[in-house]
């Protein structure tokens, strides 16, 4: 996923179609006296609809489409003929897309399933033709209803990627390397900070053809909640994860302090993130000697399950998958 192509926030102006006017018409046929009213109803205006598409990963296709308008309904005709319904506009969005009112910030709904359709703005109702208004005392009604106008609103679409596991760590903790080893994802990897500029998703294969989704987000640094580094722009992408996998490299000066800093930044952003299941993975352990390993194990935090891994030698990778899979299933059972 190229950084320039990953868009997780767009603001668009949407307008639904107006309803068609009802027809004011009287039946006029040869040899038929006083045919009476036969004006048909107007067609409803087109809706603006959001539809989930599991094949989409970004809102890029909506970035340059600021104004979206559905089609108006057609007017009714004589002979009780109803006008054509205005064509709906269907906007396909990735799963995990939230729609918000741009003025109030109110969350309207979210798209979480492939093929799910929700009406964002309803089209105007078509007006009734004069056929509806005939009665014993009004046999030639001289009026019909106009169609209802369409609705218009500014809407924010915000994407929160859906994944089972979110990788959390400082830049250069080995998050992208781990994702590239356990899945077919190919994130950019280099030995400088902030190589990862956008979230990356990978499907991790497990035993018996099972799998789970892992999300790698750009590294967090101390002060991210105040906007340092890449700030907290991408933290919304781990709000949906059931498990947070904290990654701290084995060559860190103070593993405990680094882990606590990450926790603090998450707490400032959204305290509910700390209620999620957590695992601590110590990466790059292939660079340690046996004595250094023994010393490192004494420094590990006591309040979180931890595991030593190496993406290079594959050490601990299968055990990590086992632990993640067990946590995913225990979370599902709790729900």
Kindly describe this structure.
It contains five helices and 14 strands. 16% of the residues lie in helices and 23% in strands. The protein is an alpha/beta fold and 335 residues long. It is rod-shaped and about 110 Å long. A hairpin with a 5-residue loop joins strand 5 (97-101) and strand 6 (107-111).
In percent terms, what proportion of residues is strand? 15-25%
Q: Summarize the helix and strand pattern as letters.
A: EEHEEEEEEEHEEEHEHEH
- Quote the distance from N terminus to C terminus: 32 Å
Poorly predicted parts:
189-196
What is the helix fraction of residues, given as a range? 10-25%
CATH superfamily of the largest domain: P-loop containing nucleotide triphosphate hydrolases
Descriptive terms for the model:
335 residues, alpha/beta, Rossmann fold, 2 domains, 6-stranded mixed sheet, 5-stranded mixed sheet, 23% strand
């Amino acid at each position: 996923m190229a950084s320039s192509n990953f868009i997780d926030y767009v603001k668009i102006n949407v307008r639904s179609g107006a309803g068609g006017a009802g027809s004011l018409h009287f039946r006029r046929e040869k040899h038929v006296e006083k045919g009476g009213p036969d004006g048909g109803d107007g067609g409803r205006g087109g809706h603006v609809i959001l539809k989930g598409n599991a094949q989409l990963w970004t809102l890029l296709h909506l970035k340059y489409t600021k104004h979206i308008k559905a089609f108006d309904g057609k007017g009714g005709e004589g002979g009780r003929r109803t006008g054509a319904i205005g064509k709906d506009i269907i906007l396909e969005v990735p799963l995990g897309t939230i729609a918000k009112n741009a003025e109030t910030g109110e969350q309207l709904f979210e798209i979480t399933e492939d093929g799910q359709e929700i009406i964002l703005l309803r089209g105007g109702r078509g007006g009734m033709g004069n056929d509806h208004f005939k009665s014993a005392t009004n046999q030639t009604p001289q009026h019909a209803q106009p169609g209802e106008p369409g609705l218009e609103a500014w809407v924010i679409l915000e994407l929160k990627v859906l994944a089972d596991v979110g990788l959390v760590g400082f830049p250069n903790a080995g998050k992208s390397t781990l994702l590239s080893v356990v899945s077919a994802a190919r994130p950019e990897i280099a030995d400088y900070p902030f190589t990862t500029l956008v979230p990356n998703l990978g499907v991790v294969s497990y035993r018996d053809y099972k799998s789970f989704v892992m999300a790698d987000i750009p590294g967090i640094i101390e002060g991210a909640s105040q906007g340092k580094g890449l700030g907290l722009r991408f933290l919304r992408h781990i709000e949906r994860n059931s498990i947070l996998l904290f990654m701290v490299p084995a060559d860190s000066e103070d593993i405990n302090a680094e882990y606590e800093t990450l926790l603090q930044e998450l707490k400032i952003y959204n305290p509910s993130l700390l209620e999620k299941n957590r695992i601590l993975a110590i990466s790059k352990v292939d660079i340690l000697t046996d004595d250094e390993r023994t010393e490192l194990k004494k420094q590990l935090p006591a309040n979180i399950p931890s595991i030593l891994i190496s993406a290079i030698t594959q050490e601990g990778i299968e055990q990590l998958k086992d632990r993640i899979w067990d946590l995913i299933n225990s979370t599902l059972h709790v729900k």
